[in-house]
Every structure is written in structure tokens, then in C-alpha cells.
Specification:
By secondary structure, this protein is of the alpha/beta class. It is built from 7 helices and 18 strands.
Length: about 300
């Protein structure tokens, strides 16, 4: 859908806040806390950005975007935009939802990972749910949305930590897991790994741990190896070279799979596997979903068997 950038302001050092409104002036499709939209930035560049405003709002979407020096093009393109520019975006999608059965929610945000977490905090506050919100940044200057955090609905349940002052004591925060408490974390991969590792060591159940990556975490390199895939609808067998992805090989033979992040983070290219065992290399599927071996992300994952039959 087409939207217009109504405003672009500085939310913190290096973070721009974009307010998007419908091009036709109508209400926007509703969304739930943790949702994101795909933003089409031209030349085939598509990036996912979390919606960080209160999900009760339908007149606007807000995106917080960090100007990343290591950007693959997305954040640089976003920061080049100005108020009045038109954008094409998807409808909201949510792969990082709040769980309705939680008695208490622990929200942990690192840096720009605050964007989906802030929407969660505001949603939980509005519903009167029990939660605590921990927000870790490098410094006060890099802490976004300070005005919203200081509001009556969040102030008493928000805890700020700065690397140049006091860091969060994760062992203390996560020391007493409860069966009906859920943990949500988003931020840099190192921060998320520290949170999740600390939680697991403290005895948190995997089903109570929820995370969303902005980029794929580093994984130990292992040989790729060539294999084949069968396109179920036609029976066509396509060779996948050791130096190409399944998406690339299929596209070269006229079989297009929609992609977005191409890092195994967003889930756009999720494909059903009818036969064979995938070699999962994504950051999207849960451990339980990987163990089922009935779906995989062909933008990054490969095969443990010589053949995968795909529901294409």
C-alpha cells in the first residue's frame, strides 16, 4: 500500500523516527504489538521495520530506524528520505506476538531493538497487564523515545541502563523464572544471545522465550555442499551448487520465491519441505519447528540429504 511520510524527526543519536500516514487519508490496517512492515525502497531493496507506536492507533504507523554504518543499504536509504516522500509498504505482519496466557511479561530491549518492545509495553499498559520493561543503551544520548517512556503508563515499570553508567544485571533480572511468565527480547545479536543464554542457565523454559532478530546471528561456518531440489508441482529436479542459495538456483531456472531480508530472519521465503532433511541456517524458526523438518528458509538454509522435495 502507498503511504506518505508525514514527519521525520530525531528520536536519539543516529535514530530517525518516521511517521507514516495512508496516501489516501484513510485509516491504516490495524496491527498488534511486535508487528513489522516490509518497506520497499526501490531497486528491489525491501527491508523490515518494526512498528513502534501504540497498536491502538490506526491513523499512523511509526518506524524507528538506526543509521547503521554497516548497513546493506536499507538504513542508508531510509535516512535519505524526507517528509512528504511516498513509500510502498506491506500490510503489518507479526512474527513476534505477545502471548495472551502470560501472567507477567519481562520485556528486554537493546538499542534499536526497543521499537517492537515499546509497542508491547504500551499495549500491555493499556490492557492493565503485569509487565516490566528493561531498556539497555550505550548512553542517555542514544536512548530513544524518552518522552514516551516518561509517560504515566510506562514510567513506573521501565528501567533504563546505559553502558557508560550502569549495565543491566541479567543474572539478577532473570534469576527466578515462573511457568506463567514470558520473556521478550530484541536488539543486537550479542545482547540477545546474552539474555537468552542467561535465561536458559537460570531454568527458563524455551517456550517462554521469545525473540526477534534484526539481522542474522553469526553461526559457525560449515561446508555447503551441492544437493538437489525437486519442484513438486512439475517434478523438475534442479541442482543447487555449493556456492549458491536455493533461491538463486531456482530463480535461474524460472522458479521465483519471494524474498526480503535474504538472511533467514524475516520468514518471507518460508517454504514447505515434503521430503528430505533441511540444514537449517536461519534465525527465524524455533527449535521445535526446525526439528519437524517440514519447512525451511531457502534464502540461507541448505540440505542434509541429497534431495529436498519442495511444495512449489
Amino acid at each position: 500500500m502507498q503511504v506518505r511520510i508525514a514527519s521525520k524527526t530525531a528520536a536519539a543519536d543516529g535514530i530517525a523516527l518516521f511517521e507514516l500516514v495512508a496516501a489516501d487519508g484513510n485509516a491504516l490496517p490495524p496491527f498488534t504489538a511486535g508487528a513489522h512492515v516490509d518497506v520497499h525502497l526501490g531497486n528491489g531493496l525491501v527491508r523490515q521495520y518494526s512498528l513502534c507506536n501504540d497498536p491502538a492507533e490506526t491513523h499512523r504507523y511509526q518506524l524507528g530506524v538506526l543509521r547503521d554504518a554497516a548497513s546493506r543499504g536499507g538504513s542508508a536509504a531510509m535516512h535519505a528520505l524526507t517528509a512528504g516522500n511516498m513509500l510502498e509498504i506491506s500490510a503489518p505482519k507479526n512474527h513476534f506476538p505477545l502471548h495472551a496466557d502470560a501472567r507477567h511479561s519481562v520485556l528486554l530491549a537493546g538499542g534499536i531493538g526497543v521499537t517492537p518492545i515499546l509497542a508491547m509495553a504500551q499495549s500491555l499498559a493499556r490492557s492493565g497487564a503485569s509487565f516490566e520493561f528493561h531498556y539497555c543503551t550505550r548512553s542517555a544520548a542514544s536512548t530513544a523515545f524518552q518522552d514516551r517512556i516518561a509517560g504515566d503508563d510506562l514510567r513506573e515499570r521501565t528501567f533504563l541502563y546505559h553502558d557508560d553508567r550502569q549495565r543491566a544485571d541479567l543474572q539478577r533480572l532473570l534469576a527466578s523464572p515462573q511457568a506463567d511468565t514470558h520473556l521478550y527480547v530484541c536488539g543486537p545479536t550479542g545482547f540477545m544471545a546474552a539474555v537468552l543464554d542467561t535465561a536458559r542457565a537460570a531454568g527458563w523454559r524455551e517456550s517462554s522465550l521469545h525473540r526477534e532478530y534484526f539481522s542474522a546471528p553469526e553461526t559457525p561456518s560449515s561446508p555447503g555442499g551441492a544437493f538437489q531440489v525437486t519442484v513438486q508441482s512439475t517434478g523438475r529436479v534442479i541442482d543447487i551448487g555449493a556456492d549458491e542459495t536455493v533461491v538463486q538456483a531456482l530463480a535461474a531456472h524460472g522458479v521465483e520465491i519471494q524474498t526480503s531480508c535474504e538472511q533467514g530472519v524475516c520468514g518471507t521465503c518460508l517454504t514447505r519441505v515434503l521430503s528430505g532433511t533441511p540444514d537449517h541456517r536461519d534465525a527465524y524458526l524455533t527449535d521445535e519447528e526446525r526439528a519437524a523438518n517440514d519447512q525451511f528458509l531457502p534464502c540461507c538454509s541448505r540440505a542434509r540429504t541429497g534431495m529436498l522435495v519442495l511444495d512449489l
